[in-house]
Design a protein that fits this description.
By secondary structure, the protein is of the alpha/beta class. It is built from 11 helices and 13 strands. It binds pyridoxal-5'-phosphate.
Length: 378
């Protein structure tokens, strides 16, 4: 086992290290504040409430949404569940895609049997790329009430060109739910979707256990997680107003403050340059991996519609074996299906999944390339 610190190449699962300032902001809550917003009479509680609102505003600005309609959740999974269950009605039709994460696929499939929701799933190509035009065509023929899709594949990094889908949805009077878990913090997600769900702990470089759901003014959804919101009046009914209606239970205040620090750091740094550097590293890795016989690299190779995520397989080694070899070499990659149940049909990786390499902004190209040397030695 190596004694060097691990090189984290699993940014698509969760980013590490976090943005500078995140740990200090969280520690400050544990060391000095210790209270929740709107729960308590102390000066600290009031100042935490102000700090949480400030983070909400910064986040909403990045999403192009109103802060008043941006709720903090435990993660994108909760956000997507809240939206699907709060928006869909029995018999509704939904257009979705084959790249979806289980966070969207599972609640949608459950709603199909529970509420007779009908879904049309738009296939992706062998690189995991979804053609926006195919989503538009499926929507024109299906006339769905909702188009629910991921902004990018967490398996191959292929980004979906959302603008034409949003334009078609407007014309068809359908709503768009965008799962921006992989993209928020890395690229612009302010693309006119009606609802955006995402995580704090991936490209936003914030803590785990925190996400958000932002919904456009005028689009009403029913709260499905009911409970305490710290509201002033005694009532056994969920308050109807945003964001309280969707924030039942004690919030993850230290994580929200940590996200605030991450948003500040991101605002002061060039995410586009970081993505370009990481994509160059991925391209070098792809070229190096291809020199080894039997390696198959998956995902888009050119163009701007891609995140720095590379999935690959090898003829003579299981993804899990490669993952274990990387671990021995101090490299954290991820093997398997990456919680994306449908995409592996198109990739031809249904049997064992892939090895996924996803560098964040704090690793160098040389560190990413070490994955190839592990395979050369194997
Ligand atoms: C595309 C996508 N959607 C949703 C999720 C779930 O996010 P969270 O862990 O915040 O619930 C992930 C996490 O891997 C993801 O990659």
């Amino acid at each position: 086992m190596t004694t060097h610190p691990p090189i984290h190449l699993d940014h698509a699962a969760t980013s590490w290290p976090k943005a500078p300032g995140v740990v200090d902001a969280m520690a400050r809550w544990y060391d000095e504040l210790g209270v929740s917003a709107d729960r308590g009479d102390s000066e600290a509680s009031r100042s935490v409430a102000d700090a949480v609102d400030a983070v909400r505003s910064k986040l909403a600005r990045r999403l192009g949404m109103s802060p008043a309609r941006c709720a903090f959740t435990s993660g994108a999974t909760e956000s997507i569940n809240l939206f699907l269950r709060g928006f869909l009605r029995p018999g509704d039709r939904v257009v979705t895609t084959a790249i979806e994460h289980s966070a969207l696929a599972r609640p949608l499939v459950a709603l199909c049997s529970e509420a007779g929701i009908g879904t049309v799933t738009v296939e992706c190509d062998g690189a995991g790329a979804v053609d926006a035009q195919h989503v538009v065509e499926a929507s024109r023929s299906t006339r769905p009430r909702l188009i629910a899709l991921s902004h990018a594949s967490n398996v191959t990094g292929a980004i979906v060109d959302v603008a034409p889908i949003v334009a078609a949805a407007r014309e068809l009077e359908a709503r768009v739910l965008l799962d921006a878990s992989q993209t928020v913090g890395a690229i612009d997600v302010d693309l006119g979707a009606d609802a955006i769900a995402g995580s704090a702990h991936k490209s936003l470089l914030g803590p785990p256990g925190l996400g958000f759901l932002a919904v456009r003014d005028g689009l009403e959804i029913t709260p499905h997680k009911l409970g305490g919101t710290g509201s002033a009046r005694p009532s056994d009914a969920q308050p109807p107003h945003w964001p309280a209606a969707f924030e039942a239970g004690t919030p993850n205040t230290p994580a929200i403050l940590g996200l605030g620090a991450a948003l500040d750091w991101l605002a002061a740094h060039d995410a586009a340059a970081a993505r370009r550097r990481a994509l160059e590293a991925i391209d070098e890795l792809r070229a190096a991996l291809r020199r080894r016989p039997g390696v198959r690299c998956l995902g888009p190779e050119h163009g701007d519609l891609r995140l720095p995520i590379l999935s690959f397989t090898a003829d003579d080694l299981d993804p899990a074996e490669i993952g274990a070899l990387c671990d021995l070499a101090g490299l954290r990659v991820r093997s398997g299906f990456h919680c994306a149940p449908w995409i592996h049909r198109a990739l031809g990786t249904e049997a064992m999944g892939t090895v996924r390499v996803s560098p964040g902004p704090f690793v160098t190209a040389d560190e990413v390339l070490r994955v190839a040397s592990v395979l050369v030695r194997a």
